[in-house]
Amino acid sequence: MEPTARKPGYSTVRDRHDRHDEDRPIPSIIAAAAPTPHDPQAEGFYTDALRELVATGLPFLLAGTYAVSAYTGISRPTKDLDIFCKAGDSPRILGHFRDLGHAIEIEDERWLGKVHKGSHFFDVIYASSNGTMPVNDQWFEHAREIEVYGSTVRIVAPTELIWSKAFIQMRHRYDGADVVHVILKQHDQIAWPRLLGYMELHWEMLLVHLLNFRWVYPTERDRVPRWLMDELMDRLRHQLDLPQPQMKVCRGRMLSRIDYATAVEDWGFADVGGEGEWRDE
After folding, report:
1. 143, 20: one domain
2. Residues 234, 246: one domain?
3. Would residue 156 be called left, alpha or beta, if left means φ above 0 and alpha means ψ between -120 and 50 degrees?
4. Distance CA 254, CA 133 (A)
């Protein structure tokens, strides 16, 4: 029998991916719940998309609402799939679906592409919009496996799921409730030292989410390790004794490009990252 042909560039990725899998078994989980597509006809698109993603042999993770539902038991409508991958694999994934006849969109080169078929689509995400969250090998080392629409796929781990949602705080979308519920239901599966490492530069944001959790569920405060609260509060105490920073900086646009625009455009605060115009506007 002739060996199955592989697309150029795919075999190296797949073989490296497979060797890594042999070193560490991937834990499987049963989803506590699943979201409901806004459009029932989207389920067929999602089924085909996941099957094609698995067939490529390229590493990817299912995240977003599907991960939240799996870990918390909360079921809610969703309009798409969130597929996380490494930046180097995003062109391969997008190109694969382009070759299948799907419409491809690069919404923002810094972090997001989309695959469309009619009115249905899924996101290909390889970083956060503010540049703080590149998807790397560590995300795959701690992933779980789950069955979704007939395919066995990897799902982002609770630790990275929190990290992926920590900065989504806009006027029209706030993922703080997702963070709270993942902590409530998966506290014993969260690698707290790893989460602190991810958020080392933005430890105050982690403290904000933990205080939010404590306020929302006061009887469950012990689900967050005492050592972590002590560490963050000690940082805050020391910070309070320091002089004010000299550079006026507004980090708000890491949360929302629009809601904090006035601070940068009119009030003299420095932005954390650059901002450009939309190509088609």
Report:
1. yes
2. no
3. beta
4. 11
Which tokens is 86 given?
């490494």
Say how far apart CA 179 and CA 72 lie, in whole Å.
Answer: 10
Claim to verify: residue 31 and residue 97 sit in the same structural domain:
yes
The CATH number given to whatever domain includes residue 26 is 3.30.460
- Per residue in 182-229, pLDDT (tens digit) is 999 999 999 999 999 999 999 999 999 999 999 999 999 999 999 999
Domains in the chain, number:
3
Dihedral of the alpha carbons of 81, 180, 172, 163, in degrees to the nearest 10: -60
Which residues are CB-contacts of 195 (< 8 A; sequence separation ≥ 6)? 159, 162, 163, 206
Could you tell me where the DSSP H helices lie in the chain? 10-23, 42-56, 64-72, 90-99, 137-141, 158-165, 176-186, 192-198, 203-216, 226-240, 261-265
Cα–Cα distance between 106 and 136 in angstroms, integer?
20
Residue 153 contacts by C-beta under 8 Å, 6 or more apart in sequence? Answer: 50, 53, 54, 60, 61, 62, 145, 146, 147
Range of the domain at 234: 167-240
Residue 5 DSSP class = P
Q: What is the pLDDT of residues 235-260, one digit of tens each?
A: 999 999 999 988 888 999 899 989 99
Per-residue pLDDT reduced to its tens digit, 138-162: 999 999 999 999 999 999 999 999 9
Dihedral-angle region of residue 261 (phi above 0 means left; psi in -120 to 50 means alpha; beta otherwise): alpha
Q: pTM for this structure?
A: 0.88
